[in-house]
Amino acid sequence: MAATPASGGGGAYSCETAERTREWMEALADFLRRHRPLLEAHVVNFFKGRLWELVDAEWMECLRREPVESLLKLPSGCVQEHWPATLREFVLTARSLVIPREQKAPQSLVSDIHVAPIGTVLAQGMNSKKKHEIENLAAVVHAIAKRCGAKTVIDVGSGQGYLAQSLSFEYQLPVVAIDASSHHASVTMARAERIKKHYAAKCVEKQLLMVPRTVTCHVLSSDTLAAVTLDACKDDHGGEHVRETKASTKKITQIQELTQGSPPLILAGLHACGDLSVNMLRVFVSCEQVKALVSVGCCYNLLSEDSNEDTDTCPGFPMSKAAKLSELVLGKSIRDLACQSAERWRNLTMDIALQNFDVHAFRAAFQMVLEKYFPEVSRLSPSIGRQGKALRRQRLRKVVESQMTTEKTDNFSSSTLKEQNKNTNDVDSVIHGVDTGPDDIHHNACQKFTLFKDFTLSGLGRLGCGSVEDSRLLEIWKDVQPFSEYIGPFWCLRAALGPLVETYILLDRLLYLQERSNLVEAMLFPLFDPTISPRNMAVIAWKLSANSSEA
């Protein structure tokens, strides 16, 4: 039967006005509440809690027989005609609530925008993903700054300075790069000096080349970010420098009284982590000197969250008054699900997908080992599985590399082997399942138990537990193995809810700005190709007047 795709969000929903955004968020909240058990389910408890029983039995019976390719398309809203009507309705409704993520050309935002290609010198150290992001984001930041009269860019969470350097050297904009890591600041400065020499050699006429100024600071609040931003801009030494800056206790109003001479600013952030993206929005609203904002967030699991209805608090989530007054509470596990990428799922190869499902099975079976033989350890912390992640990956890498070496001639063409030898991340893709990669083997039953045993022993070692006899591990594996076929369908159904959670978080940020509609123009814009950069939605905003209000 032919598959029926669903277009992402759109349709009946819009975020062009605050009222329409609220309506969309209410529909999302209603759908998410109805499926909260699935949202809150965690893979570590899959066998222990018999989590497949949370899902309609007819759905699971249908999906366990589906080809892997169909499962991988499910989070993108692709259904099969022979699926139960209720399952089709679930998938299509979920997809209709997701904000459209297909990349839009920067020219649709600003018609005369110039996207400067990043040359080999400026691109040093960047992978193709980073280069794609920097080219598009830098062009938009430059265009918005020009439109709003912003003279200086504040790069928040600047990392190694890729965005800051592109804005400085390609667009000749003064940039202050703020990051919590002094090492990143040092790398940024050293890299900028090398790039500066290259650009200086190219200059025919005498031209002042600006190098990003760096500030090292742990930004723990919007007040801290405002203080650091405005203080850095009023410092008129004109040189590049690295400073350790302590958190400020001043309020925004006090800070602004001392920094009236600051130039008009634009805040920019590429995947500013957790609350950092949120603090950028609050500083934009509160600081008169900040005229515009271009922010691409990430790491929703690291957001602070307040479930109280007190609209005067300042958590990372919720931000808008409407969301604060609603009863929807997410929690870390659900916010973590917001990081799932339907586009990445859709582009996994069958073998990589099967291996992802296997690793989920290993982790859930490992929890059964802990429950049975080390119950006191199992009760210590819900994040217990992450503690052994690095070591388990190292151990699994050795096993998989060995198998790839001995079996590659039976499974791959010479061209695929050449690509494998070139890509050192193949085994990592097998183990922690975030990126697509070359096809790999799918382990048979014996190999799966070997991997499970290795996974378990390395995990136990990391946790300081004793060993467990192979016969006992085999007993547990035999008990859970018949239900492992449900992991793929279950995980894909849960992954289909991830984009809804992200949409709700993004709309909450947009609505926070729209609630100040007489002062601010704001939008969500899909700036990157989501298959390259899954966190591709930018919050873009600019002031309509010189006035501002308290956050």
Descriptive key words:
551 residues; two-stranded antiparallel ribbon; 22 helices; globular; disordered C terminus
Topology (SSEs and partners):
Elements: E1 3-4, H1 18-34, H2 36-40, H3 57-63, H4 68-73, E2 79-80, H5 85-96, H6 128-148, E3 152-156, H7 162-171, E4 175-179, H8 182-202, E5 213-216, H9 222-234, H10 252-258, E6 265-273, H11 275-286, E7 290-298, H12 321-325, H13 332-337, H14 342-346, H15 350-373, H16 375-378, H17 389-411, H18 414-422, H19 426-432, H20 445-462, H21 470-480, H22 487-514, E8 520-526, E9 537-543
Parallel strand pairs: 3-4, 3-6, 4-5, 6-7
Antiparallel strand pairs: 1-2, 7-9, 8-9
Helix pairs in contact: 1-22, 6-7, 9-11, 15-19, 15-20, 17-19, 17-20
InterPro entries: Methyltranfer_dom (IPR025714), METTL25 (IPR052220), SAM-dependent_MTases_sf (IPR029063)
Pfam families: Methyltransf_32
Domain Methyltransferase: 129-305
Task: Describe it.
By secondary structure, the protein is α/β, with parallel strands linked by helices. It has a domain at 106-234 and 262-341 and 497-543: Rossmann fold, CATH 3.40.50. The protein is built from 22 helices and nine strands. The chain has helices at 18-34, 36-40, 57-63, 68-73, 85-96, 128-148, 162-171, 182-202, 222-234, 252-258, 275-286, 321-325, 332-337, 342-346, 350-373, 375-378, 389-411, 414-422, 426-432, 445-462, 470-480, 487-514; strands at residues 3-4, 79-80, 152-156, 175-179, 213-216, 265-273, 290-298, 520-526, 537-543. The strands form two sheets. The chain has a seven-stranded mixed β-sheet, with helices on both faces. It has a two-stranded antiparallel sheet with strand order 1-2. Helix 17 (389-411) runs antiparallel to helix 20. It is globular, with a radius of gyration of 25 Å. The termini are far apart. Residues 236-242, 244-249, 308-312, 387-392, 406-443 and 546-551 have low confidence and may be disordered. This is Methyltransferase domain-containing protein. InterPro entries: Methyltranfer_dom (IPR025714), METTL25 (IPR052220), SAM-dependent_MTases_sf (IPR029063).
